[in-house]
Specification:
The protein is mainly beta. Helices cover 10% and strands 53% of the residues. The chain has two domains: 31 residues; 188 residues, TolB, C-terminal domain (Neuraminidase, 6 Propeller), CATH 2.120.10.30.
Length: 287
């Protein structure tokens, strides 16, 4: 065996070892189970929900889920308590944000020029058009919408009373979600920058949280501010309590999206990267 052949073989084997190790690492990240911290627990509530994104629990125990599929393959699905499913709206492209409003549900489509629409009594009414609209928040008299675009996103406000549309912010970079907290603050995320900002009347919009890994959906309740990280590997569900202490409640998620509270004191989390919906059980709630 020549010296040159031995060198080539050794180099080739080393290359194979690196590739195998890399594949193993990514496989581990993809299949490693979700971890709950402390006394928190979780269960899989619904499986086989492709690209689950926004969630709205209904009074009858059903769940409305937007499925963020592209090219007209997305839609809004209703899952009843007995497990039966009904496509309420089909033919959508990346339906992402969804919020209850005016006795119905408003939904967005994260694609260019698509409308933000109201679904009510089986009828769909287009409210206004945007570019890659993702997050929605309804404040009663006003509806806020935010565009997920690189360097050119906008934060919009729609008034229900007269149908007027205002641009509150522009030139936003990958803004994804907006919500109002119990203390009155209106917060929004900028995914690429890894920050959460507070919308201010003077336009300053200070950073209230930084160092996050692709923050996407926000939700506020009595426990504090919930933040999901839209990463395909080792994503987290975070909770910042009213005292400002941040903790990781779930880890090793894959592209989690929205989180919503349920009537029985639990939470539902859309884990779009694994096509399922999780139920998160706080320490003080029995299974």
């Amino acid at each position: 065996m020549t010296r040159t052949f031995r060198v080539v073989r050794t180099t080739a084997l080393a290359g194979v070892a690196v590739v195998v190790a890399a594949l193993g690492f990514f496989a581990w990240q993809s299949f490693y189970p979700v971890q709950a911290s402390g006394a928190w627990r979780y269960e899989v509530a619904w499986r086989s929900v492709p690209k689950a994104a926004s969630l709205i629990p209904l009074e009858d125990g059903s769940l409305m889920v937007s499925q963020e599929l592209r090219d007209g393959k997305g839609g809004i699905l209703r899952i009843r308590p007995d497990g039966s499913r009904e496509v309420v709206v089909g033919g959508l492209s990346k339906p992402d944000g969804m919020t209850a409003a005016n006795g119905g549900w408003v939904f967005s489509q994260e694609t260019g020029g698509a409308p933000v629409s109201l679904l009510k009594d089986g009828k769909i009414t287009d409210l206004f058009h945007g570019e890659n609209v993702q997050g929605l928040w309804n404040d009663g008299e006003e509806l806020y919408a935010i565009e997920d675009r690189k360097d050119n996103g906008r934060l919009l406000r729609y008034r229900w009373s007269d149908g007027s549309l205002s641009v509150l912010r522009d030139r936003l970079d990958e803004a994804e979600s907006i919500t109002r907290c119990n203390d009155g603050r209106l917060l929004y995320t900028q995914k690429k920058q890894g920050v959460v900002r507070e919308l201010k009347d003077d336009g300053s919009d200070p950073v209230v949280l930084a160092g996050l890994n692709q923050p996407t959906f926000l939700m506020c309740d009595q426990r504090g501010l919930w933040i999901s990280e839209d990463s395909t590997h080792r994503a987290r569900l975070l909770l910042v309590d009213p005292q400002g202490q941040q903790r990781t409640v779930l880890s090793f998620l894959k592209a989690p999206q929205s989180i919503v509270a349920t009537a029985r004191g639990t939470y539902l989390v859309a884990e779009g990267g694994r096509n399922r919906v999780l139920e998160l059980l706080p320490p003080d709630v029995s299974p």
